[in-house]
Design brief:
The chain is an all-alpha fold. The protein folds into two domains: 1-206, MFS general substrate transporter like domains (Growth Hormone, Chain: A), CATH 1.20.1250.20; 223-422, Growth Hormone, Chain: A (Up-down Bundle), CATH 1.20.1250. The protein is built from 18 helices and no strands. It has helices at 6-39, 43-71, 73-97, 99-113, 116-127, 133-141, 143-162, 165-185, 198-204, 223-227, 230-259, 265-295, 300-321, 328-344, 349-356, 361-372, 374-390, 394-414. The protein is globular.
Length: 422
């Protein structure tokens, strides 16, 4: 049996890291129901616990990109998974100590997970050739819906059968096991890995032949040349718009099916799982199509724009059609298609990061994701406010559609895949 190319091992393990990250991120959403009853939390205290993660995540994001650029993606990603897994394991103990201890642990989880994508992109800049950028970045991002689905359903089962602490113990232990495999199977650079054969080494040598062999960047980073560019602005806006759709849909689908379509809580959860699976499938399939079209001669800039702009515009149109959905089956069909369209955008802006600055992908992605984390806080909250004010989800989905269309227009006008830095 032929050995799996080492670059595919790197991508597969970063995908698993993303799955684990999102199981650890969302398990508290289920466990918090039982924790609130046990510890007598108010709704405000529960909200502080749930939001503490994003405080650490947002504040450490750009620093994580700088650290990954300096020390290399292998070390930083491995340490970050171990760190957030340890904080996950400590969550039940912290909850029994005090509210401040629990919030501190959740912020620590956010700090750990902040390095996930920047360190992955630092590795991809070394391990992934240009014709595989879309598949690599979309594969890792597809861990978001899959991890969310596993985290929510798995935590529900664990909490119901074994108590809420087990949701943290099981998923935290999974991260520690991943770390053992990671440090045994991955090197920072293909040149350091004896498992890379001659053919793969020749393929990887063309990624950026003028770059140094080792990951550490000792010289001062050219922030102005890297970040203050039109293509980067296009990536940031597209990332923001795609995440707005992602966070709103993932956060509010169960409530929509319960409140608007009149489903039971159990059925609302089941209906909410289908769009996650649709997003997982579409992100990987669209990436295969994107890379194949580029190999056949279609321009990289053209394919990035098609995937990003079409995904956001189609998703926007489907969300606007939801006001006419008068049955759960119709609503489910539209929402599966809308989330699948968002999945296609992951062959756009994430791969674009590696197109324009393959050796500085960690810093560039961290810069973009700092802004793109805002919808996880603001977008989700504004959606709830609009539902309260209007009594329907129509205005909330219309706002999400408008953000998506704006992101598509900006990316379509400003993005160019030519390298701004090697």
């Amino acid at each position: 049996m032929a050995r799996l190319p080492q670059r595919h091992v790197v991508v597969a393990l970063t995908f698993l890291a993303c799955v684990i990250a999102y199981t650890d991120r969302v398990n508290i959403a289920v466990a918090a129901v039982a924790m609130k009853e046990q510890f007598g939390w108010s709704q405000t205290e529960k909200g502080l616990v749930l939001s503490a993660f994003f405080a650490g995540y947002l504040l450490f994001m750009f620093a994580a990109g700088l650290i990954a650029t300096h020390f290399g993606g292998k070390v930083v990603l491995g340490c970050s998974v171990l760190a957030w897994s340890i904080f996950t394991l400590l969550t039940p103990f912290a909850a029994t100590l005090s509210m401040s201890a629990l919030i501190t642990v959740r912020m620590g989880m956010g700090v750990g997970e902040a390095a996930l994508f920047p360190s992955s992109y630092e590795l991809f800049g070394r391990w992934v050739p240009a014709e595989e950028h879309a598949r690599a970045t979309a594969r890792v991002a597809s861990g978001i819906p899959l991890g969310t689905l596993i985290g929510l359903t798995g935590s529900g089962w664990l909490v119901a059968h074994w108590g809420w602490p087990t949701a943290f113990y099981i998923f935290g232990a999974a991260g520690l096991l991943w770390g053992i495999v990671w440090f045994r199977r991955v090197e920072n650079d293909p040149a350091d890995d004896p498992r890379v054969n001659a053919d793969e080494r020749a393929l990887l040598s063309v990624i950026s032949p003028s770059s140094p062999a080792k990951p550490a960047v000792k010289e001062k980073l050219p922030f102005r040349r890297l970040l203050l560019r039109k293509p980067v602005a296009a990536i940031v806006v597209a990332h923001f718009a795609s995440n707005w759709s992602l966070y709103v849909l993932i956060s509010w689908l169960p409530s929509y099916f319960r409140d608007v379509q009149g489903l039971s809580v159990a059925n609302a959860g089941l209906f909410s799982a289908a769009p996650c699976l649709a997003m997982f499938a579409s992100s990987n399939l669209s990436a295969i199509v994107c890379d194949r079209m580029i190999r056949r001669g279609v321009g990289v800039t053209v394919m990035r724009k098609i995937m990003l702009c079409a995904g956001l515009i189609i998703s926007a149109a489907l969300l606007l059609m939801l006001r006419e959905a008068h049955s759960p089956a119709t609503a489910l069909t539209l929402l599966c298609a809308a989330t699948a369209a968002v999945g296609c955008t992951w062959s756009g802006f994430p791969a674009a990061v590696l197109d324009v600055a393959p050796r500085h992908g960690a810093v560039l992605y961290a810069f973009s994701n700092t802004f793109a984390t805002i919808p996880g806080i603001v977008g989700v909250a504004v959606t709830g406010w609009l539902v309260d004010v209007t009594g329907t989800y129509t205005a909330a989905f219309a706002l999400t559609a408008a953000v998506g269309i704006a992101g598509a227009l900006v990316f379509g006008f400003l993005f160019d895949s030519r390298r701004i830095l090697d």
